[in-house]
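Final report, Chapter 2: Outcomes

The project's central promise was a pipeline that accepts a single protein chain and returns its three-dimensional structure in a standardized token representation, suitable for archiving and comparison. That pipeline is now operational. To close this chapter, we reproduce one record exactly as it appears in the project archive, with the input sequence first and the structure output second.
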Amino acid sequence: MHTQMHMVTFLITVFELVMLVFQGIYFLQRPSEKSRLQYLILLVCLIAYNICSGLFPDERWAIPLTVQTIIAYFVGFAMSMYVVYYFYKVFDLKHLRFFATYGLLFFLLLPFVFLFVVPYLLTGDSRLSAKLTVIVPFCYGLGFIYSTARALILKFRTAKNEGRLIDEPLYEHAIVAYISMVCWALLPVIVFFGDFQVLEHSVTNAGFLMMTIIYVRSAIKQSRREYEKLIESERNLQNMTKTLKKKVKMRTKKLESVMEAKKTTFINLAHETKTPLTLINNYLIEYIEKHGETDEIKVIKNNVKRLTNDIVNFFDVESYERGFSMYNHDRVSNFTSLLNDKVSLFKHAAKKKGIKLVAKVESGLHVKAHPGAVDRIVNNLLENAIKYSDEGSTIETGLTRVGEEVLFYVRDSGLGIPDDQKEKIFEPYYKLSVPGRNSDGMGMGLSIVKKIVTDVQGSIRLTSEVGKGTHIQVSLPIATNADATVQEGISTDDIDFAYNQILLEESLDSDKPFVLLVEDNIEMLNFLRSKLREKYNVAVARNGRQALEKLSSMPSVDLIISDVMMNEMDGYEFCKAVNGMERYAHIPFVFLSAKGATEDRLAGLNMGAVAYIEKPFKIEELMARLDSILSNLKRHREAFVSKAYQLVMSDKQEAHPTVSSKRCAFTDNCKKYHLTSREVEIIKLLIKGIPYKVISSDLSISDKTVSKHISNIFSKVSVNNKIELISRLEAQELLSGSHSEVTRLNDDTTTGKTV
């Protein structure tokens, strides 16, 4: 038995394949069009039907004839099933739900199995089985045609009555699709009366070919609309670009004018600063010569020197930016002698930090450059290496000749420089940003080094890897003129980068309150500690991580004072960590910071800090604030415990009348200050000493929302901390349920400590 696809069927199939590719490409460009995807699936089913029914059954195929016959008819039924689903899905005809679900099972799939497959396997007569199996689908098709017509009419009529607009292409699509469905419904009739391949495929494909034309037409129209919109958008964009360029140009000129005015003001300010610094420095030297140098005077001297260097660097950068050179390089400097002098000084500074400095300096090397410029290169690179290296690491430096150049290098095993910052660090005022490290300085040193190297026609190369260290090489032209005057190393003062040791902790006085002081600047840390230890037991830490470790080892803490900008863990993170620990969440927190913006202060206070003190500050004011905080804390604690104790005793004698009156007072005060029910819930939990994080978990809200609510509460009640809030609302009754809590608080008051 040989089956051959008719030429008409072949041409129809080829056309549909071409349309499938075209529509597929169009859909990939616009994947949001779900109706086109449904049509692509329908087109695939139609092509499969044409191929299978046109080529099966045929003895030339390796597949058994029985299987080929079943496949050919099954593909036809599968396509019919998807036609029903297509109408239901694309036109959103909910009235056809039965036809698209159970109807497919009962009237198409089951008849195919029991009226075609079973009889065909028993009799081997495909024609008889085909006639039997098309009777039920024919009736089902008539019902589906009628129901679809009603559903479409109802859909369009409802849309019209409701004033909803339906696109014209949707009407066309519905009409053509309905015609295609009617043609498809005639398929059982053709199959019943005979095997007419050309007629069968012509009738079933005619309607669907019309749908293809509709989709192609829709694609062309949409492409035209999109092209027109694109042209219009491009035209609008060009006009907007022109307008924006004009605005940007005007704005740039204005910003340049403002920046120039600010820079001029800052230069004038720096000029005015040089005279006071000169006077301070000279009088300081005179004072040291007469009275000697104490530790306090040494701190003043180092900080005056640092400020002077920053001012000098600022003027040098500005000079280079304006095209002026600070040095006359028509001189020869003894690089070897200068570097040896510097290494001896830097070794002492590195040793203070626990760093080993190794130098390999070749003798007799001279460069044609001003000795002050060479000194600046050496100072900056060695200082940076020590600054960004950790205790126990090694720094290598050396000087050698490579051809006609002198190579000076510094290699450390410190933090390293991220790839995205390797070029930027040579820009003026750019400060290296390394996670977990607070950078000092103004970011001018390396920019000056590069300017100097460029002036003497040298080169600078940097290689670095985060976590492994940095290697910087500076190449300068060698000086070979033996008759030139050789300038030896210039005189230098002792190098001190404030790598001072933290003062040793002294014995504790149990009668004094315990204060935890967290500050990354050692000089500031020692200064504050020396002042605070007169009244308090002071424990110190350099960052938040160290403070947490210190906190866990301390028997009690009454107050925490913390800087904000610190390495490894900053003050805000430390405060959040403390608030999240139930054991320490009650400890008053005071911020000391150079960040004085309103948002910074609000951020600190919203975290629960009782005070935010901006640097610079007067030590007398700080001491007064701390005394006030601790005195109020002690006074409120004593009053709190006293009232709680009275409340417990009254429970036994008066059957809770005080509790009832206190609760009424609390309720009245909440109404007085217009507190919401959510704010009252938070106040009750806050008074019980529950941390913010636990409150957010209990109430199923975020930490940020809790902080915002508490900030609003403080604002409404006009208080600054939790202690004042308790006093203002008279909320002692909220803790009346626990006798053991009263006992614990009473013990704390007796000892004057919080655990």
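Archive annotation: Residues 655-659, 731-755 have pLDDT under 50 and may be disordered.
This record, like all others produced under the grant, will remain available to the consortium after the project formally closes.
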